[in-house]
Design a protein that fits this description.
3 domains, Alpha-Beta Plaits, two-stranded antiparallel ribbon, elongated, two-stranded antiparallel sheet, 46% helix, mainly alpha, single chain
């Protein structure tokens, strides 16, 4: 029943968290300015709650606007792209960005992170002025795809870091063993020493000392 603009004016991070709070009796049904009085009536009908006036602390009901990037001011920082919950902004680092009017929900979440204030909210073209249930469904689908993509990227980055740490640990172990071998060789311990317990204990002590010195060299105190 919510418009899927993901504007967060309700005080939640998106339409789904707000809907879950309504279902769990943790939020009233009158905190969605984009849905307005019609949306409140729909929510009242499906939840059995009484119709209430829009909570003024969340904003005011107004015709939908869409974002537009002022080309002469855009520096290509990509902050707006990362902020857009429905992938309605095209562009790349240090390249001019552009809002895709057909995809913009009018959430205005791209405005705050822009460091040069190059984004403005404008009246949409007449053919895009309305916001239908189909528009909301499409916006929700884009949100879900974006969330899934970000989850995959985060998982890939964690795997990359884990592999890097494993490689670093392997390299450190190899360096330590090389240092130990060199230290033991320089100490002149003969293979025949291993024939008696005293020689084995002496070699173990020397190896432990060599390992400690190697670790100290590889990981100096900061």
């Amino acid at each position: 029943m919510l418009p899927q603009t993901q504007c967060t004016q309700c005080g939640f991070s998106g339409c789904k968290p707000y809907a879950e709070a309504i279902v769990d009796q943790q939020a009233p049904i009158n905190r969605c300015p984009p849905g307005g009085t019609v949306g409140i009536a729909l929510l009242a009908d499906v939840t059995g709650r009484a119709v209430a006036a829009l909570d003024a602390s969340c904003g005011v009901e107004a015709p939908r606007k869409i974002a537009r990037i002022v080309a002469d001011l855009c520096i290509g920082c990509t902050h707006c792209i990362r902020a857009c919950p429905v992938d309605a902004i095209a562009g790349g680092p240090k390249r001019l960005h552009a809002i895709i009017p057909e995809l913009c929900t009018g959430c205005a979440l791209c405005l705050p992170p822009c460091p040069v204030d190059c984004i403005e909210m404008i009246e949409p073209p007449r053919m895009l002025a309305g916001w239908t249930r189909e528009d909301g469904d499409a916006a929700r689908a884009r949100l879900n795809r974006r969330d899934a993509r970000l989850t995959r990227l985060a998982r890939s980055e964690r795997r990359r870091l884990a592999e890097h740490e494993t490689e670093a640990a392997t390299a450190e172990t190899s360096a330590i063993m090389s240092s130990v071998t060199a230290s033991v060789s320089s100490a002149g311990i003969a293979d025949g020493d291993m024939a008696n317990q005293a020689g084995a204990e002496r070699k173990r002590a020397m190896i432990e000392a060599a390992v400690a010195r190697a670790r100290a060299r590889l990981n100096p105190p900061t």
